[in-house]
Design goal:
CATH superfamily of chain A: Divalent-metal-dependent TIM barrel enzymes
Mean pLDDT of chain A: 94
Shape of chain A: globular
Radius of gyration of chain A: 18 Å
Low-confidence stretches of chain B: 126-140, 146-210, 245-267
Strand order of the largest sheet of chain A: 1-2-3-4-7-8-9-12
Number of domains of chain A: 1
Strand content of chain A: 15-25%
Strand order of the largest sheet of chain B: 1-2-4-3-5
Strand content of chain B: 5-15%
Mean pLDDT of chain B: 62
Distance between the termini of chain B: 65 Å
Distance between the termini of chain A: 24 Å
Number of helices of chain B: 11
Oligomer: heterodimer
Helix content of chain A: 40-55%
């Protein structure tokens, strides 16, 4: 149902030059959509040119962080148009966004904020996803976010909400394994129950990343290597969803690119081992 | 389809909680829209993360101001954050009004607002470095393609007035990306450039050689007084420089390797 791209890396400016000059063995790249959107001042054009060069060498995914799918505000049509321009220009293999809200009353909060998991919100978000898919003319993937609060009015578990969401809106799932782990610790649930509930045939991509411990909380910082518990959970995810396209995200304390390649290799090994066991 | 009323209600509360955590009585039933038992702690994580993220964004865009203002920068950034709503989904635009804010907030130190304006202009131009498409030509090759409009020995013998087409500009910008390694490239020819946008194309004019070194000194945390002393400047001259540069555009300063910095002069 979804193209399997292999093991990819989140495209960050720290690694731009190396990617352009050395073309390291990475199967695909995932770019943050907002980093390549032109501004009123005309920024971004050279970045777009660079992305075009990378696009010639690597399959590309566009990953959005600011569409605010779950906001009570109307969808930002300017932002949506900017996204469509990018999608039309780069024809990425994957377009994804988060199940969250990032703005309200026209003000941006620049964070992936969780939603109340209720029937009315489910209907509302499904319709907005459908609007976005219609506008872009393609299916998108929706990613689960990390969170530090739970709404009192929520009536769904996160996994049931996601399952219903993809069923009703015909979108795919981007399963962030680290986010599941972070939430399982922060909110006290079994991450395997989460994985078990997701419809495997709708999983189009997975994310891996690192986090930090802050007191009793895990904070989704993306500035650490993937931890052992998340690697284990990733193996469980691969058992259930197969060798889905997997992307490694790093957003701080950037190590040499070689270290990220080692992490990608570990993901590749896990995929191979799980596939081997499943074949037996 | 309009948003469910309960969604709007909780999002308004959440927004207030993030933007104005001090106004919340978080220990009371105000947080009863969040599930116990860790609602208060969880809410604090979001509020703190917002303040940190936006302050970091300002610090990243205005490194010289941050170095010079130190703790005061943190306080000023917080004030700016409280006064300024971020209206674009593109976070990188948040600092656009910060120079004007600084100028207003620090009337007794007007050069700081000018410095911020300079840094913002610098960022606008060098934003291109974030994803440079250049072909990584050696600087000599880039300069050989430039149209040398004039030599200006009144600045110093290594100064140029250059007009570069956008492609060439990008290549030069790319070279500038390696500015920190300049000292390891003694054979490279180095120039001082003042850049601003004019009629849709980039115009480069030679300007004070010391500018780049002054900027680097400030960025590395050197005090203003020390940086001025090193470069033979008075604070009044510095103020005038920043006034000029801030209005015109951006300095990408290179000093000819053969000319010691201490000999560079603007006059």
């Amino acid at each position: 149902m979804f193209t399997r791209l292999g093991l990819g890396l989140g495209l960050r400016k720290t690694y731009f030059r190396q990617l352009l000059t050395e073309s390291p063995a990475i199967d695909w790249l995932e770019a943050i959509s907002e980093n390549f959107m032109s501004t009123p001042a005309g920024w971004g054009d050279p970045a777009l040119a660079a992305l075009e060069r990378l696009r010639e060498r690597y399959p590309l995914a566009l990953h959005g962080v600011a569409l605010s799918l779950g906001s009570a505000d109307a969808l930002n049509q300017n932002h949506l148009k900017r996204l469509k321009d990018l999608v039309d220009r780069f024809e990425p293999a994957v377009v994804s966004e988060h199940l969250c809200w990032t703005s309200l009353d026209g003000q941006e909060l620049h964070d992936l904020l969780p939603l109340p998991l209720t029937d009315s919100v489910l209907n509302y978000v499904c319709e907005r996803i459908q609007q976005v898919q219609d506008f872009l003319g393609r299916r998108i993937l929706i990613e689960n976010v990390s969170s530090y609060v739970v709404y009192a009015e929520s009536t769904y578990s996160e996994w049931d909400f996601l399952s219903e969401l993809v069923k009703r809106s015909d979108c795919g799932l981007l399963v962030d394994v680290n986010n599941i782990y972070v939430n399982s610790v922060n909110h006290g649930f079994d991450p395997l129950q989460y994985l078990d509930a997701l419809p495997a045939e709708r999983v189009g991509q997975m994310h891996l990343a690192g986090h930090r411990q802050q007191g009793d909380w895990l904070i989704d910082t993306h500035d650490q290597p993937v931890c052992e518990a998340v690697w284990t959970l990733y193996g469980e995810a691969v058992k259930r969803f197969g060798a889905s396209s997997t992307n490694l995200e790093r957003d701080g304390e950037y190590p040499p690119l070689a270290e990220l390649l080692v992490e990608l290799e570990r993901a590749r090994q896990i995929q191979a081992e799980v596939s081997h066991v499943c074949a037996i | 389809m309009s948003a469910p009323s309960e969604l709007l209600a909780v999002q308004r509360r959440f927004k207030t909680l993030i933007l104005s955590p001090d106004k919340q009585d978080s220990s009371s039933a105000d947080l009863n829209w969040l599930a116990p038992p860790r609602a208060e702690q969880g809410a604090e994580i979001y509020a703190e993360a917002y303040g940190l993220r936006m302050s970091q964004e300002l610090a990243m865009r205005f490194p010289c101001c941050q170095n010079l203002l130190s703790e005061r920068f943190t306080s000023l950034a917080r004030d700016y954050l409280n006064q300024t709503a971020s209206l674009s989904p593109l976070l990188q635009l948040f600092g656009q009004a910060f120079p004007a804010f600084l100028a207003q907030a620090l009337p007794a130190e007007p050069w700081l607002g000018e410095l911020a304006r300079y840094e913002w202009a610098h960022f606008e131009t060098l934003h291109r470095q974030e994803a440079i498409a250049g072909t990584f030509l050696p600087l000599d090759q880039v300069l050989n393609q430039a149209d040398h409009q004039a030599q200006n020995p009144s600045l110093n013998q290594g100064s140029f007035v250059l007009k570069l087409n956008p492609t060439l500009y990008l290549q030069l910008s790319d070279w500038l990306l390696d500015a920190d390694t300049l000292s390891k490239k003694p054979t490279q020819q180095v120039v001082a450039l003042l850049i601003w946008k004019h009629a849709g194309c980039l115009y480069h004019e030679s300007r004070p050689v010391a500018a780049y070194h002054l900027l680097k000194a400030l960025q590395s945390g050197q005090s203003l007084e020390r940086a001025c002393e090193t470069h033979g400047l008075t604070p009044e001259q510095l103020h005038q420089w920043f006034s000029d540069w801030g209005r015109k555009g951006v300095i990408l300063g290179f000093a000819p390797a053969s000319i010691p910095v201490s000999q560079a002069s603007d006059t």
